[in-house]
Amino acid sequence: MGDRILAGKLAVVTGSNSGIGLGVAEALAAAGADVVINSFTDAAEDHDLARRLASGHGVAVRYLQADMSKPDQCRALIAQAGRCDILVNNAGIQHVAPIPEFPAEKWDAILAINLSSAFHTTAVALPMMRAQGWGRVINVASAHGLTASPYKAAYVAAKHGVVGLTKVTALETAGEGITCNAICPGYVLTPIVEKQIPDQMKTHGMSREDVIAKVMLARQPSGQFVTVEQIGGTAVFLCSDAAAQLTGTTISVDGGWTAL
Q1: Would you call 197 exposed, middle or buried from its count of C-beta atoms within 10 A (0-12, 13-18, 19+)?
Q2: What value does the mean pLDDT take over residues 4-24?
Q3: Which of 40, 135, 141, 200 could be 182's S-S partner, Cβ–Cβ 3.0 to 4.6 Å?
Q4: pTM, entire model
């Protein structure tokens, strides 16, 4: 696909100061795109991260603070970016509880950040993409956008919603040089997941290796974590000319989880 296939493009990646979002931002920058990274914080390290990405890849990178639970801030993020050739809706949170005990405010927050934010950013980005005659919307869904697990009602509902939004966005932009697809990762080894391992070791009385194999990756037939680099590479592919007719679908990067 070439090293700098996205030169001259501007990508906005939500929830991208760590984990999957940062991995995608790194991959897009390495492919030559200028990037806007984002989170709800506004710390010195956020802006330092933007400078590190810029110098490491020879592209322009800005950090813009926006709270993805707030519709006006979602829309302002895209407006402030000034243009948006590639939109990666990645921001997300999680909470685990049985439905009768699931806090209403957690349900609302997860739906707002994991689903509604993608609607609001897309609504502002699409006119920009249409003006350019080219665009890529990439929604980071989940294996939970295609299947379910107990105690994750809000997350599963939101991620299924993201898949539905992906299909509608693709149909509304078909034939306009714009595509919209969802990446559905399985378990990805991010700093958040890494932090869960010691707690799971205590809870189950297991070694690190057993917790990873028998608890965390029990539904991932490959027995291996997905890497943020693999998600980033998938995003770059979706932005390439090779993927110009790939729209309105899901790409499972889950070690076989959804094949079961």
Answers
A1: middle
A2: 97
A3: 141
A4: 0.96
> In the structure, what pLDDT confidence band is assigned to residue 1 with cuts at 50, 70 and 90?
very low
176 to each of 11, 88, 162, 183, 219, how far by Cα in Å? 18, 19, 21, 21, 38
Domain locations in the chain?
Answer: 10-188+226-259, 189-225
pLDDT band at 3 (very low <50, low <70, confident <90, very high): confident
CATH number attached to the domain at 10-188+226-259: 3.40.50.720
What CA–CA distance (Å, rounded) separates 69 from 74?
8
- Catalytic residue status for 63: no
pLDDT tens, residue by residue, 94-143: 999 999 999 999 999 999 999 999 999 999 999 999 999 999 999 999 99
Residues in the chain: 260
Tokens coding 117:
């934010």
d(CA 173, CA 167): 10
Which of 63, 151, 155, 187 is catalytic? The answer is 155
pLDDT tens figures, 192-232: 888 889 989 999 999 999 999 999 999 999 999 999 999 99
Determine the straight-line distance between the first and last CA of the chain, rounded to whole angstroms: 32
